[in-house]
């Protein structure tokens, strides 16, 4: 069975896209480092989380769970799973294209999967990108600047008198709000917004922010699944 | 912050790895379902709204103004990162002004 191309040329094309998204990811890494330091996590631990998780939203949510003082392994696992549930869809949408490179190349490429480079890769595939090394190429600049930003942010965070004055504590809500605004494409997408906000406020008020985040994700997913137009309904319609 | 972070790091890394691999691997076995698609699509939006709502509930006027500006700028400019950074800058400015 012939394999799809997986070459340096394709990697370099992806790398160029990765460079284009590197600056905001560096700034976000800086902010994560700041938030982690502010939460009492040393730069070594912050960098280890950045390397092991490589997802800003999941890492920030994990920190907010750890900060509650009664964090459990289950709460941390659930938080990362809920925050990164969209990666299931990303992986699924990449599979028909990426699997043609074989598992030894496809699975390591998925380690570089992120929001921005997934969008860039899907666009490249749409434009006829044939080289499966493209995805890994898009991911290398973000990984490098994410780790560098984390270290620098965490080190500066520990000597800055008040990260709150820089608004570091508002980085997660601001990114959440901005990405939410961009991801609202139709009136229908206001449903998970309303459900998520309501569930988070109700549960977060009782059980803390960590479980508020989990509740928002589960409630939004549940309502979407229940109200999704089924094939039968679509056929009937 | 817990004294020993190793177990939390390993669990978080394993969960992140599972999310990156599971959708890809499941495609071989999973019949496509509109309900599953809809649930996965809705999850990040719901979580983002939840985080925003909790920040609004916990914050004051500075936080509300900054988040409202962030949403408006992101919606108009379609640049979520730029809008988020502007929102953080705005909240820092409003706090410096004592609002």
Structural commentary:
The complex is a heterodimer of chains A (about 240) and B (about 100). Chain A is mainly α and about 240 residues long. Chain A folds into 2 domains: about 10-165, no CATH class; about 185-235, no CATH class. Chain A has helices at about 10-20, 20-40, 45-55, 55-65, 75-85, 85-100, 105-110, 115-125, 135-160, 170-185, 190-205, 210-225, 230-235. The longest helix of chain A has 26 residues, at about 135-160. With about 100 residues, chain B is mostly helical. Chain B has 2 domains: about 1-30; about 30-95, no CATH class. The mean pLDDT of chain B is about 90. Chains A and B meet through helix 2, helix 3, helix 4, helix 5 and helix 6 of A and helix 1, helix 2, helix 3 and helix 4 of B.
Order of helices and strands of chain B: HHHH
Largest sheet of chain B: none
Approximate strand percentage of chain A: under 5%
Quickly count the helices of chain A.
13
Count every beta strand of chain A, where a strand is a DSSP E run of 2 or more residues. 0
Q: Can you tell me the overall shape of chain A? A: globular
Q: Total domains of chain A, how many?
A: 2
Instruction: Give the oligomeric state of the chains in this entry, treating copies of one chain as homo and distinct chains as hetero.
Output: heterodimer
Total domain units of chain B: 2
Taking all Cα atoms into account, the compactness measure Rg of chain A is: 19 Å
The largest inter-chain interface, given as chain pair and residues per side, is: A-B, 102 and 75 residues
Number of helices of chain B: 4
> Which stretches of chain A of 5+ consecutive residues score pLDDT under 50?
none
Helix content of chain A: over 70%
Q: Give the fraction of residues assigned to helices of chain B.
A: over 70%
Please identify the structural class of chain B as seen in this structure: mainly alpha
Shape of chain B from CA axes? extended
Strand count, sense and barrel status of the largest sheet of chain A are: none
Radius of gyration of chain B: 19 Å
